[in-house]
Design brief:
Largest sheet: 9 strands, mixed
Number of helices: 11
Helix content: 25-40%
Distance between the termini: 21 Å
Number of strands: 23
Radius of gyration: 22 Å
Strand content: 25-35%
């Protein structure tokens, strides 16, 4: 009978080499290596020669030297997703160098490529008792980073595998009437109306009103809602079904920074919709990353959705170089060193990620499948050691007793809304109750 053990980690935002020794590495690596498929998300480009920065970034322009992949291999990873908001930080040249480095390291790397076909196709993993396909997709990106279809007359566009979505804001009749009045008085839609009339832009979908590029619709159920782009959902669903014709399992990695409202605790509506569609198509698991914080665990039709594993390695403040565009954003001299520029940005913030303890808390799941059924799901609580000395901080290690309790209580609370129950094992791992 086919079977699979899978471990996964959140974002490997790493820009420096691993120290020769640091607390807990051996124990963490041993847990990761219990999986046969071992996945993480590479949250940086890899460049060994200069290449131009894109005019946009995923928040910080990230690049590191290809040698960091040796450290991911030491942890035990054999598959590195590369569909994330930093994949095109250094334009097509940076993407090409990254893909070349991943090939050289012999790491499977779904999620980005020289065209949409390459970016969207499952990366194969040959395991002892199964063939597994891993798909990686991203919802947080500049449109220019999106990979494009090739055609009979034109090559495809390099980029990442995109999951597009639309946000719609619902207002009651009184609020909607006021919004239309404001639009009329301000002229905010004037240019857009001209473009629609000239045929250069499509009109707003029926029943929706566009205000300065934002869609609204009338409803007594007010608030923000979101919907996955049906083209990207259908493409992914078809890819899962096609892969299952020749593979035993399909796992979907999804990178998303979007949230329902103003809390990083909640997965956005479209992400729930997309994850459910993947499971219904036959995916064995959906593993999320993106927001620098853990999100809920859901068991949907008996299969796991981990909406975000947060950070696994978090070295954003140690980036070596930044382009002039970063300095311009913060009114700094163009030749400001990267370390000073990052410190300046942090000083301006009122809620820095570096002050959020849950940017330094995560879990590593171990999933065990027999046939098509999930038999067990354990979570190893992990800390990034933010209070350790600088050379040891930002690296993952098994959480201590206090950190484990914090992680358990937090995950229990955010997962309860999905009907997911958790318990603690004597060895410190967290058990996801399968309800059988």
């Amino acid at each position: 009978m086919k079977s699979m053990r899978l471990t996964a980690a959140g974002d490997a935002l790493m820009v420096k080499r691993m120290p020769r020794e640091y607390p807990g590495f051996e124990a963490l690596s041993a847990f990761i290596r219990q999986g046969e498929a071992r996945l993480t998300n590479l949250e940086t480009t890899l460049t060994h020669r200069p290449t131009c920065a894109s005019a946009y970034s995923g928040g910080t322009w990230l690049t590191a030297r290809p040698g960091i992949l040796e450290d991911l291999v030491q942890y035990g990873f054999n598959c590195v997703g590369f569909a994330n908001n930093h994949a095109l930080d250094y334009s097509y040249g940076g993407l090409a160098q990254t893909l070349s480095a991943l090939e050289e390291a012999k790491l499977a790397h779904p999620g980005a490529g020289e065209n949409l076909y390459q970016a969207a196709k499952p990366a194969p993993l040959a395991l002892p008792r199964a063939q597994v396909g891993v798909i990686a997709i991203c919802s947080t990106f500049e449109n220019a980073a999106r990979a494009g279809h090739q055609s009979a007359s034109l090559p495809g566009r390099p980029g990442l595998n995109p999951l597009r979505y639309k946000s719609v804001y619902r207002l009651n009749a009184r609020h909607m009437a006021a919004l239309r009045e404001i639009a009329q008085a301000s002229g905010i839609n004037g240019r857009n109306e001209v473009l629609v009339a000239q045929g250069f832009r499509a009109p707003a979908p029926k029943g929706r009103f566009e205000f300065g590029g934002i869609l609204f619709e009338e409803s007594e159920n007010e608030g923000r809602f979101s919907f996955a782009d049906p083209r990207d959902v259908a493409r992914t669903v078809d890819s899962i079904k096609d892969a299952l014709l020749t593979m035993d399992y399909v796992v979907v990695m999804v990178h998303s920074h979007e949230v329902k409202c103003a809390s990083d605790e909640e997965a956005d509506y479209f992400l729930e919709e997309f994850a459910h569609a993947c499971i219904e198509a036959g995916a064995s698991a959906v593993i999320g990353s993106g927001t620098h914080q853990l999100k809920a665990v859901e068991l949907y039709k008996g299969r796991p959705i981990l909406y975000s594993l947060g950070n696994f390695i978090f070295q954003n403040e140690y980036v070596e170089t930044l382009p002039p565009e970063f300095m311009e954003q913060y009114g700094l001299p163009l030749n400001t060193p990267a370390s000073r520029a990052i410190a300046h940005r942090t000083a301006l913030s009122s809620a820095s990620l570096y002050d959020n303890p849950f940017a330094y808390r995560t879990v590593v799941p171990l999933m065990e499948f027999e046939g098509d059924a999930l038999q067990r799901l354990r979570l190893l609580p992990v800390s990034l050691g933010e209070k350790l000395d600088r050379h040891l901080a930002n690296w993952p290690r098994p959480a201590d007793e206090t950190e484990t309790r914090q992680i358990f209580e937090y995950l229990s609370r955010v997962s309860a809304g999905y009907g997911t129950a958790l318990s603690q094992n004597p060895d410190g791992t967290i058990e996801v109750c399968l309800g059988r």
